[in-house]
Structure formats: C-alpha cells, structure tokens
Amino acid sequence: MAENTTSGESLLFLTDExxxxxxxxxxxxxxxxxxxxxxxxxxxxxxxxxxxxxxFINRSPGATVGHLLTILGVTKQSLNRVLRSLFNDGLVExxxxxxxxxxxxxxxxxxxxxxxxxxxDAQRARMRAAYRAAGPQAxxxxxxxxxxxxxxxxxKQYQGLKDxxx
Amino acid sequence: MAENTTSGESLLFLTDExxxxxxxxxxxxxxxxxxxxxxxxxxxxxxxxxxxxxxFINRSPGATVGHLLTILGVTKQSLNRVLRSLFNDGLVExxxxxxxxxxxxxxxxxxxxxxxxxxxDAQRARMRAAYRAAGPQAxxxxxxxxxxxxxxxxxKQYQGLKDxxx
DNA sequence: CTTGGAATGTCAACATAGCTGACGTAAATT
DNA sequence: AATTTACGTCAGCTATGTTGACATTCCAAG
Lengths: 166, 166
Prior knowledge:
Strand order of the largest sheet of chain A: 1-2
Structural class of chain A: mainly alpha
Oligomer: homodimer
Low-confidence stretches of chain A: none
Shape of chain A: globular
Order of helices and strands of chain A: EEHHHHEEHHH
Mean pLDDT of chain A: 92
C-alpha cells in the first residue's frame, strides 16, 4: 500500500483540494437543486420563500406560525409577508388553535396543495434522477455527509420532521 | 429476500418519502454550509456574493470577468457592483489581458487572499468535520449524488475547475 | 482600413427577500 | 391583576438579483 494511511484508512479525502471540490460541488448542486422550482415560480408572483413555506406547511399540516419560523430561520416579518400573499391567494388557510386560541394552525388549501405538488414533483424528479444515477450506496453517503454538515439545531429539526409537530 | 427488488437491487431509496428527506437534507445542510462564512462576513460590508467572487478568483487566478460571469451565473451589473467594492477596498486587482487588451484578468491581492483564507478555512473546517464523521465511502457517495444533481453546463464548469482557465 | 461584434463598464430603475425596531391585540399563564 | 406568549403590522433599511440603454476599447474579418 503506497498511500498515506492512519489506522489503516486513507485520509486523502481530507486534503484541502478534496474539501474545496466538495464546497464547489455544494455550490453547483444547490443551483441545480433549486432550478426547476424556480422556473415554475418565475412568472407567478412567488419566489423561493413561498416554495419553502408551502413545502413545510404541506410537510407538517397544522404547524403553527412559530413552528414554521424556527424551521425556516427567518424573522416573523419576513415570513408574514409570504404568508399574507398565500392567504390572499387562497393557497394557505389558518385555523385557530383548539387548546390555545392564539395559535394559527396552517394548512394548504386544494389550490395550495396543487402548487406544492407541482413544485415538489419537479424537484423530486431531479432528485430521483440523481439518486438513480448514483445508486443506493451513494445516496446513503450523500445523506450521511449532509447530516454531518448541519448545525446541531438544524439536525434536530431535520430528524424530527416526520412528526406532525408539537 | 423480503424486499421489493428490480434486477436484484432494492429501489426503496427512490420512494417519494426518501426523496423528500433528501430535499430537506439539502435545505438544512446548505444552511450549515454557508453559516460560518456568513458569520465572518457579517459586520464587514460584504456578503455571500463577495465570498463567491473571492472564492473563484482565488481558484482561477487570472480569470476574466466574463469567465467569472458564466461560473457565478449572475448578470454583469450584479457582479460589477461586487467587483467594484472589492477593487476599491484593495482585495482584488485587474490586469489588462496580454493578448486581448479588452480583458481584465482578475487576481487577489494579499489582503484579498487573506479574506479568502479566513472564509475558506471556516468553510473547510466544517466540511472536514463532516467528511471525517462520515468517512471516505460516504464522501464518495456525497460527491457522486451532488454531481448528478447539477445541470449539464454546471457539471462541466465544476469538472473543469482545475484548469487555470482559457 | 474600415467596420462589426465582443468584452467590459456604468447609469438608472426596479423586485425579492432578508433584516431591525417599535407598537398593538388577544389569549394564556402566573 | 399583571405578565408573558403568539401573532400581526407599519416603517425603513440592506443585499442581491433583474432589465434596459449606452459608451469604450479593441480584435478580427471583409
């Protein structure tokens, strides 16, 4: 074995050059990742922020505004602008909380669900193609590295994302 | 084998739920990915756009403005605003092209290189930690999936990024 | 040699999506 | 009754993107 090893394992994947390539891969891949939904949203009065809101409302129906705020990591003023337009256009509706009437539980309307479907179909199609081309083994690694790249809090939110929420 | 298979290979990794988790992983991971440089830039008069410019100028010293434009995928007006401030602050300098005098070949100054180092050190540190935690096998998969997720053009740019350019 | 087009800069105007700060209201909690 | 929480909103600012129009310089081809 001519390679530089530590405890039997090559560390060549930790060179600055390799890390740099990883950084650039993230940059270019993220562009691809958002390209298709962006194309759909372009022309409508919506943008990436609306996409994210609709995505997570669909993902956690009945989520409160506060919950959405922590997931998206933006200010309430910023989110509110987005939600307002989604309300006005009838894509999202808010139901007053049962136990706590201050809360507004968010739900997609049929129209909102349709947009969400269009957006996520496009995004999933790309993801599916990439997954299929790369194979299950690679996908496993992909997910592992991404998870390791998150902040603590983000990782928790990510992992706890199946629960319909608090 | 109790799993659903096609040509001997489980396709469970292509379910909508798996794809959705992949999408969300990209979302949260990208936040982590940019968090550290953003923290450094915050307070200076610079933002993510400056980071990207400095990164790619460092990566391909002598690159022309046009080259940078195609890599970054923004308009010249947008890039110009960024470059102007980098010039004014003495982080980047432009040398007139030897053969084609219309071109401006971009280079980092010592000061610019210092900022680039600070930013990329931070970003690489996170990447390194993630890589180390995930292991070489996972990193391989990570890169494979990301590459498959890019657009054609982006992939070419990504792959050809070692060349010091035309 | 002239001319067309390429590489670049720049002015102006605008949109999106983030931010801070301040204030208001209703409902829950103490 | 007083305080805190959840949410909304007004106002203003910043960063980064966009179009469109126009000028300069210079290479390259007719």
